[in-house]
Design brief:
By secondary structure, the protein is an alpha/beta fold. It has a domain at about 1-195 and about 225-255 and about 295-315: NAD(P)-binding Rossmann-like Domain (Rossmann fold), CATH 3.40.50.720. Helix content is about 45%, strand content about 15%. It contains 13 helices and 13 strands. Strands 3-2-1-4-5-6-11 form a seven-stranded parallel sheet, with helices on both faces. It binds nicotinamide-adenine-dinucleotide (NAD) and 2'deoxy-thymidine-5'-diphospho-alpha-D-glucose. Nicotinamide-adenine-dinucleotide binds near residues 6, 8, 58, 80 and 188.
Length: about 350
């Protein structure tokens, strides 16, 4: 039995589905179901007794303590977070509450549970914290990729809150001996990605005949990893990672945003051509840049390869094709997430410029 937090979100849901698809032990899935949490992502597990879903906040100490006592997990994997940089600029409060206070509270609940475990279970227990490359800040064009010993230089309210959570996790290990592991991963893409993030937003807007908003000059670089590869990295770190260590996870896939958008357009041109015969690239619209926009992220993933033998299975070409195909095959999932609250967000973020 493991306890996963944030397992109704994009990466958490992929992780739970992968886990139960390949292993026998059960998952207690604790998720607050914010706008980003979608129980429909887990619909295929409806009749699977190994999946126990509980709607709760990681900051609710009593609820977390009760779940730990009841289910006695051998590990906790902490995905739960406010995760969208643009939302953190409009309203940082929720990011501090969940990513900082919430992480603190779950660490305390886990510490009390872990302290009271019998010796063998105590020895085997792990708390794996899922974090991001954004904590390292922005890279110059020719600078080496982020290794695990890179300085923390977060630039957005989101990345600052994640950096704070990483520091808390580190401190709970050094001070209390809690057996923690931390992963810092680059940008994920794949099925169940909420369509306010770049790749799904572009697919959904393209098909709807809407503008494809590119911030600034579109030359910001991200290092893209297929979500299934992130899930396999987390499983590997949980299984064999050295307690107290951090592992950077990335796809060796540095690409400028404009190139990403053009690639998605080309795939849609091939798989679902526009009725007027024009390319979807005609819908590209340059809009106002994100305040404080980090220019470049890149992950040096040599440590996890050298020490744990992990490498991504997908290339960007295979992963992005699968992803576009998934969105074409799941129009109802997209329609269902486009709730009133999501429409309000689009209005707030894009209306002053091109509209979305
Ligand atoms: P997401 O926003 O899609 O999902 C987050 C989930 O956490 C949602 O289901 C939400 O309901 C839940 N949640 C939020 N606040 C909660 C709380 N207080 N208590 C319990 N549940 C809560 O995010 P994601 O993209 O799946 O990211 C998951 C984790 O991975 C985050 O910690 C994020 O920082 C990290 N990460 C994401 C990426 C990426 O590219 N998406 C890359 C690296 C790291
Ligand atoms: O690097 C890992 C991070 O990746 C995670 O920690 C975050 O949780 C996750 O949201 C993601 O953050 P980004 O800000 O990089 O992702 P997003 O999809 O919002 O943006 C990707 C790039 O595309 C970024 O440079 C901003 C740009 N962008 C985004 C949107 C939504 C646009 O140009 N236009 C857009 O409309």
């Amino acid at each position: 039995m493991i306890l996963v937090t944030g397992g109704a979100g994009f990466i958490g849901a992929n992780f739970v589905l992968d886990w139960l698809g390949s292993r026998d032990d059960s998952v207690v899935n604790v998720d607050k179901l914010t706008y980003a949490g979608n129980i429909e992502n887990l619909a295929s597990l409806k009749n699977d007794a190994r999946h126990i879903f509980v709607q709760a906040d990681i900051g609710d100490s009593q609820a977390i303590a009760r779940l730990l006592a009841e289910h006695q997990p051998r590990a906790v994997v902490n995905f739960a977070a406010e995760s969208h940089v643009d939302r953190s600029i409009h309203g940082p409060e929720d990011f501090i509450q969940t990513n900082v206070v919430g992480t603190f509270r779950i660490l305390e609940a886990v510490r009390h549970y872990w302290s009271a475990l019998p010796a063998p279970e105590k020895e085997a227990f792990r708390f794996l914290h899922v974090s991001t490359d954004e904590v390292y800040g922005s890279l110059e064009p020719q600078a080496p990729a982020f290794a695990e010993d890179h300085n923390y230089e977060p630039n957005s309210p989101y990345s600052a809150s994640k950096a704070a959570s990483d520091h808390l996790v580190r401190a709970w290990h050094h001070t209390y001996g809690l057996p923690v592991l931390t992963t810092n991963c680059s940008n994920n893409y794949g099925p169940y990605h909420f369509p306010e993030k770049l790749i799904p937003l572009i697919i959904v807007n393209a098909l709807a005949g809407k503008p494809l908003p590119i911030y600034g000059d579109g030359m910001q670089v991200r290092d893209w990893l297929y979500v299934g590869d992130h899930c396999s990295a987390i499983r590997r770190v949980l299984e064999a990672g050295k307690v107290g260590e951090t592992y950077n996870v990335g796809g060796w896939n540095e690409k400028a945003n404009l190139d990403i958008v053009k690639t998605v357009c080309a795939l849609l041109d091939e798989m679902r051509p526009r009725t007027d015969g024009q390319s979807y690239a005609h819908q590209i619209a340059f809009v106002q840049d994100r305040p404080g926009h980090d220019r470049r992220y890149a992950i040096d993933a040599r440590k996890i390869e050298r020490e744990l033998g992990w490498r991504p299975a997908e290339t960007f070409e295979s992963g992005i094709r699968k992803t576009v195909q998934w969105y074409l095959e799941h129009p109802q999932w997209v329609a269902n997430v486009q709730s009133g609250a999501y429409r309000d967000w689009l209005q707030k973020q894009y209306a002053p410029q091109e509209g979305a």
